[in-house]
Amino acid sequence: MRSRPWFAAIAIAGMAVVAIGVGLGPTEASDRTVEIDIHYSHFTPAAVSVPAGVPIRFVIVNSDPIDHEWIVGDDAVHARHRLGTEAVHGARPTEQSIAAGRRVETIVTFASPGTLSYVCHLPGHEAYGMVGTVIITQH
Question: The domain containing residue 99 runs over which residues?
């Protein structure tokens, strides 16, 4: 029987590729970015699921010809924002203003599992249906 050293080299290389791939779970590979599109004054998707304790990069793209905002929080946060006391957002990762035709990126780490809402509080937008849900799961 003849020896085939190239066969052994290919087999070892294949095992190395499998071993590298096993170490990369979906969270490490691609699940750390969530894109939310704004079109016709609606968020798409209307619900997202993210793990608690993991930094998540949100990319919010506004393809509408009008400005919007993306405010994430509980009922108390939204009650404050319905009063419209801040004209522009961006200082807090969970509060972003998105100009017409623009995109913003923000990184948010949710501390614990639960459910929060994201809402545009510009006049009439919430009533029109510009709301969404963040489901924070156990990591």
Answer: 32-137
Dist CA 4 CA 37 (whole Å): 54
- To the question of pTM greater than 0.85 for the whole model, the response is no
Task: Please give the Cα distance from 50 to 33 (Å, whole number).
Answer: 10
Let me know if residue 21 belongs to a domain.
no
- Residue 72 falls inside a structural domain: yes
Q: How many whole angstroms separate alpha carbon 139 and alpha carbon 112?
A: 9
Q: What is the pLDDT along the chain (139 residues), one digit of tens a residue?
A: 454 443 333 333 333 322 323 333 333 434 599 999 999 999 999 999 999 999 999 999 999 999 999 999 999 999 989 887 777 788 899 999 999 999 999 999 999 999 999 999 999 999 999 999 999 999 8
CATH of the domain at 63: 2.60.40.420
